[in-house]
Amino acid sequence: MNKTGYLTIIFILFCGQTLFAQRAPAWGGNADQEDYSFGFTFQYINSYFKIDKKPNWRDPYFDRDLNKYTTQPLTGIGSNSSPGFAVSFLFRYRIDEHLEARTTPGLVFADRSVYYNYADASQNVIKPVQATMVEFPVSIKLKSDRVDNYRAYVMAGVKYSEGIGVKRNKPDINPVDALLTNKTGFGSYEVGLGLDIYFEYFKMTPEIKLSNSIGNLLNRENTPYANPIDKLSLHTVTFSLCFE
């Protein structure tokens, strides 16, 4: 074996020892050792309405003022998923090594919509439900043992959402031009999982969670868009990136 071959073997052994050597765990900004810690989160949101229809949901809308039907019979009602985003602050309280409580109040920007298909396709319409909301979630986080610079967890909690700047129907509006509106304040429950990743001076956490609203979000109004619906609930998938 020539000199180049020996140098190649030595180089490979040295690199292998370096790659597989045990590293000292990152400090993570001492976040886990403190009883309290703070941070912020960026969230991507995807949400849609689950719609429970009335038994007579297909019936055309009868306008009492005009004394006639102003829409064709419905053939379909649904809600497509819509993207949004949120920015939140994070406040954490350490209960013990594997359990903590936290809250992430924040501002959410997410529009939702409901589409209506009629027997006459020219009447098909999509009704947006604009929603800029302030959210106040509280959750419990159950963590695994730390392995090197990683720690997995599951979480569960509840949150209250309050709409701001929500548009409402005017009393004299033409029913065909009316908005589909929902309650400005409502509660939800949520579950999720994530992974704490430790760096020298901070901790980064990717997290995914599912959220479902509690109760009926629909504002009951005499419009072609509210009348066919019995119950409206909100389902949300959120991907968060937290820095602590």
The helix fraction, in percent, is under 10%
What gap, in angstroms, lies between the N and C termini?
Answer: 54 Å
Number of helices: 1
Task: Give the helices and strands as they follow along the chain.
Answer: HEEEEEEEEEEEEEE
Q: Would you report the number of β strands?
A: 14
Name the average pLDDT: 86
Describe this structure in words.
Strands 1, 5, 6, 7, 10, 11, 12, 13 and 14 form a 9-stranded antiparallel sheet that branches. The chain has a 3-stranded antiparallel sheet with strand order 4-8-9, with no helix packed on it. It has 244 residues and is mostly beta strands. The longest helix is centred in the N-terminal third of the chain and has 18 residues, at 3-20. 7% of the residues lie in helices and 54% in strands. It is elongated.
Task: List the topology elements.
Blueprint: H1 3-20, E1 36-53, E2 62-63, E3 68-69, E4 74-78, E5 82-96, E6 99-103, E7 106-110, E8 112-118, E9 125-129, E10 132-143, E11 150-164, E12 185-198, E13 203-213, E14 229-243
Antiparallel strand pairs: 1-5, 1-14, 2-3, 4-8, 5-6, 5-7, 6-10, 7-10, 8-9, 10-11, 11-12, 12-13, 13-14
Short characterization:
By secondary structure, this protein is mostly beta strands. The chain is built from 1 helix and 14 strands, in the order αββββββββββββββ.
